[in-house]
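User: C-alpha cells for this complex, please. No commentary.
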Amino acid sequence: MVASISVVEDLCGESDDSSFVDPVDRAIIVETQGGLPLVSKPYHAVAIKLGLSAEVVMERIRAMQRSGAIRRIGAIPNHFALGYKANGMAVWDVVDEQVDALGHQIGRLDFVSHCYRRPRYLPEWPYNFFVMVHGQSHPEVEKKIEEISHILGADCRANDVLYSTRILKKTGIRLK
Amino acid sequence: MKTQNQTYSICGSSSGPHFPELSNIEKQLLNNFQHDFPGTSTPYASIAQELGVTEQDVLDVLQKLKKMGTVSRIGAVFEPQRIGTSTLATMAVPAAQLQEVAHLVSSYVSVNHNYERTHHYNLWFVVTAPDDEQLESVLRDIEQESGFPVLSLPMLESYHIDLGFELGLDQKK
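Assistant:
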C-alpha cells in the first residue's frame, strides 16, 4: 500500500504528534521496513520512490522517533548468526500487585532484551511475565534467569523457560 | 574490500565456537550503530568519518554483513503498537504436524516472527496488523486452516527500553 498522491500533498507539510502514524508515515514504513538502501543518500532514494522530498522523509522519520513509533534506527544484528544460539523465553507467574514494580527493575538488567506483562490464560497458560534472555549457551542463559528469579523472590509462583529450537521466520514487521 | 584484516576472538575465549570471525570495522559497525545511526542525509559517510574509513568501506562492510546474515538489515525498528496492533500467539501442535502448521503460519504476511520452542506450546509467532479487527481475523483464519486453537497473549505492559543488543564484542576504537 502506498499513500495516494493527494494524501501525500495534503499531509506532507507537517507532521503532527498524534500517537498513530498517518498515510505518509505508513508509506515510508512500507518502503523502508526491509531496510534502508545501502547507497550514499538512502533517504533521497526512498524519497524518489515515494514522490516526496528527502527533507520530508527525514523529518517524518525523526518525528516517528520522537513519538516512539520508531524505537531505533541502525544495524539490526542477527543474534543467531553471531553465535547467540541460546535464546530463552523465560516466563513467570508473578502476583499482580507486584508485577509492575518488579518488571521495571528487571527491565533495567543489561542482559534483558524484552520484558513484558501479558495476560494469563487459565488453566492452559498461568504465566503473566515474559523475559527474553540471549546467550551463547543454555547454562549461560540459565544463570541469567536464575538472577531474575532471585529478584522476583516470593512474588513468583511458578516459572518455565522455553528455548527456541528453530527460527521459522524472522523479518521486520510487514505492512501490506 | 578494504577492511582491517586483524580479527579478535570474542570474549577472549573459545566459549563461543560459533562466533564468526569479525574484523574490527565489522565489530564497530555492529556494536556502535544499533541505535546511534547518524541522522544526516549521508549516514554512511557520517559513520565512515567517525570510524576513520571511507564511505565505500562502510557500504561494502554492511553489504557483506548482510550477505553473511550477521546483520538482518540496516533500518528502523518500529513499535508495532504505535503503527497498528500486534500480539504474541502460540499453538500446541503435535510433532507430526508441526512442520506443516509452521509453514502455514509463516506464509501469512502479517506474521513477522515464528519460532519453534521447547514446550507443550511449541509454536510461537508474532502477528502485526493495522487494527484489532484484522488481527483477530488473521488469528481466526490460522485456527481454521490449521485446526488448532491459538492462544493470543498481547503485550499489556513493556518494562524495557529497547536500546539494541549488547553484543559484548571486543573492539579497538
